Amino acid sequence: MHHDGANAFPMKHSQADICRSVLDGLQAAVLLVGPDRRVIFMNPAAEGLLETSRQRGCGRDVLDLVPMGMTLQGALISGEEGATTTLREEMLRGPLQAEAITVDCTVSPIDDGTEGPCMIVELSQVDQVARMTRETTLQENQGAFSQVARALAHEIKNPLGGIRGAAQLLDSELSDKDLREYTRIITHETDRLNGLVDRLTGGYSAGEHESFNLHAVLEHVRKLTQVENPGGLEFERDYDPSIPDIIGDHAQMTQAALNIVRNAVQAMEGQGCIRLRTRVRRQCTIHHRRHRLAIEASITDTGPGIEPDLKERIFFPMVTGRPDGTGLGLALTREIISRHGGLITCISEPGQTSFTLLLPVKEKA
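Below the sequence we write its predicted structure tokens.
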């Protein structure tokens, strides 16, 4: 008898720990709401989605923390009567959120034998799922495109090498300075085309592996851009001071961010506002891998937006909306982010174009 009683208490706590671990591991945001409609518990996904910590969120009225108006209030009333309600594609913008998001919301009652029923509020970000699906499709398509591009690059670089060699031989035989100027132009242009092909096919070094803070990268890009555009351009910064360092190549990450910002400046013709924002995300899935911790950084401009027919192809090489553009900047940016184990997505409408980077934080050995 004593043996059974001694094990009952530890087993109870063990089951509670398992339940909490399961909730903490879910990608969906989950909140437990008490009979008084105050939040009792929220998992890490809810902290990330609502941009508030568990300490700040627990104890607050769920209608304040999840401001969805009468629709959520109606679902809570139904839950108190024992019914489960699912709300589809509701707009949500919490008190600490800079941008509205689209979510599916399910309210389910659970009766724990107390004064009234508790409720589980589950939130799933609809647009995030759609963007991740598009990212998977883009990755597959771009993988096939890269194979074709590398094969094509091989065929292009062979004659370029022959042209350059012939120009150098001709240059050594010519005595006329004016004619030699033409051969030097040929040499210079073949070198430029050779470099262009290397950039197109990702023919650059894998990069260094060092620890650095993403804020240092964004600040460097901001200062450089303001020097290049002294008037008419504004920057807004909304940085999360708690973001940890990431492991990767500082120079390549700077180039990736610079490509996005320069595109924004060109789209706005040097007149407008660029918003730099960072957040910590927990329990994120990136390229079908689960990461306990990730950094989300968004670069948003107030330009005219991306043409609808370019949105799905904006990260492909040679795709550009500018007559003088090469279409390589965003393709290289995506390659750099991918090499760091992250992903990049874009949403755009007139007056607001936002590129979002999601970078995993590697565990320290």
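The chain has three domains: 2-125, 130-200, 210-360.
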